[in-house]
Amino acid sequence: MDDVRSRIDQYLDEHGLAARARVVPLTGDASDRRYFRVQVRDEPSQVLAVHPGPIEFARLPFANVARLLSAMPVPVPAILGHADALGVIALQDLGDVTLQAHLGASSPAEHAALYRQAVTHIHTMQRRGADLASPDYVPYGIAFDVEKLTWELQFFVRHFLEAYRGAHLTPAAADALATEFAAVAQELAAEPRVLCHRDYHSRNLMLCDGVLHIIDFQDTRMGPDTYDMVSLLRDSYVDFSEQQVEELIAFFLALRTRGTAAVGDAQEYRRRFDLMAVQRNLKALGTFGFQTTSRGNPVYIQYMPRTLAYVRANFERYPRFARLRELLAAHVDELR
User: Fold this and answer.
1) Closest CA to 92 of 121, 108, 70, 113
2) Number of H helices and number of E strands within the chain?
3) CA 190: distance to chain centroid?
């Protein structure tokens, strides 16, 4: 912490802000970056993202993707400055209100309007992402391919099943599980790819002046057109009714087809959405298990029941998951 604070002080001093600034620590995310609000007398506040060590800003995926998203445009925090040697990036301060935090105080009409806004951002990223495709942007060179999707499912096995739940898989069970995971990963990887934020949920959408701004976008990549919709509507941090999910999927399809989506198209999209949700929610459980067992951060335990309920609902909806459900339910009672 002493090193972090000395780097912040040096940054502020170099930018002539030290004498007028008050530094306030902010709650971080699951990364190794730390965040601080700098309140400056007679100026707007800003947020400093402090990396563990020196950075090369021009080569950071965050900087590259910020340029891409700004070109669309979709709302992202402005980059106000950076100091590579200090590992510091200064960002526009969007305040403290995430979409998740705002939902508790919003009316049903406000809730619906904000989620339509969030879905519209997804549509813009997919549509304009296709227009702006270029090897100059990092996301177009990486994708949710079979290898990545499979790695995430195996991450669930290691960190949720084995580390958190204490499961001991027999070689035969591990092989059977790998076979089921392979079928899911291969189908998802074969879908046409669009630009995906990768972690598009209520904690990564900040409400500032009535507009949802997108944050934590450095892992943007190509993937299925269902991915960000699943991240948003099968969010481990927020409850959704089936009616809300259906309405927002219909809204998304109307945006994409200009109101001409056929019933069959909507049904097929929902099938692909639910398949993506199984992979995404299992991956989320792996992350929660990792945070709990490897990083000693139990805060994510409270979000496991909702995420497991999402998985179970899809297991019950689709007979194709019968074998996968059987294998996982042997170690996870909530999936029986």
Assistant:
1) 70
2) 11, 9
3) 21
